[in-house]
Amino acid sequence: MENTNSVISFALNFIIFAVTTVLIILYFRKDGKWCPQRARNAFKYFTVQSNALCALTALLMMLFPDAEWTYYLKIIGTSGVTVTMLTVLLFLGPTYGYQHMFKGSDLFMHLITPLMAIVSLCVFERAGISLEMAFIGMIPVALYAPLYYYKIFRAPEGKRWDDFYGFNRNGKWPVSYLLMHLGAAVICIGLYLLLNISA
Q1: How far is Cα 26 from Cα 39, in angstroms, rounded to an integer?
Q2: From residue 123, how far is each of 4, 5, 7, 38, 198 by CA, in Å?
Q3: Shortest CA distance to 129 belongs to which of 173, 182, 191, 73?
Q4: Are 84 and 108 in contact (CB under 8 A)?
Q5: Cβ neighbours of residue 142 under 8 Å, at least 6 residues apart?
């Protein structure tokens, strides 16, 4: 059983890493030419950042499946893409339309990859975790939120981002900031419960 879990874990992590790597490479291409600016623009989105992190942790899980630090990194990566998936399902989808959220590469980054990460971690790599350590899963949101704030409010003119997530719509940035962190905390608790089932 343990060997089967290892094989399935490796397969899922390989798919996560391979698909995400291909999609990121495609971000560097435009009209058949190399275009770093397109990739730079793509990486301002939490979706791309969280999926890139998840792909990296998937690679590390393939290379060092028995290392405790790899397990913790996989929790961080999985939490990040879970935030992405639930934000799309609960906020961006109803706001902008699900047909736009689940087409092309977004189908993988918004849904398929997060689900594979959750299944691989919580079913085939599960080893238990303390409640305190479970909250390391908040790191992606805790790092991205100040960056987003700076880029839409404080960055010099010409270097600012549009409020593409709509978190400051009607001046509700403080509410959005709080809800994103609370949501990330809830995800951490959910992963904690899943990772400690018969662990």
Answers
A1: 8
A2: 12, 8, 12, 36, 11
A3: 191
A4: no
A5: 181, 184
Q: For residue 113, count CB atoms less than 10 angstroms from its CB and return exposed for 0-12, middle for 13-18, buried for 19 or more.
A: buried
CA distance 49 to 111: 15
**Chain-centroid distance, C-alpha 162:** 21
CB 83 within 8 Å of CB 183:
yes
Residues contacting 23, CB < 8 A, separation 6+: 51, 105, 108, 109
pLDDT digits (tens, 9 = 90+) for 133-151: 999 999 999 999 999 999 9
Q: What is the pLDDT of residue 130?
A: 95
Quote the tokens at residue 73: 């990194």
Residues in the chain, pLDDT under 50: none
Question: 3-class SS at 33?
Answer: strand
**Contact yes or no for 65/121 (Cβ under 8 A):** no
Task: Measure Cα distances from 61 to 4, 12, 34 in Å.
Answer: 16, 10, 31
Res 199: pLDDT: 53
Quote the DSSP letter at residue 29: E
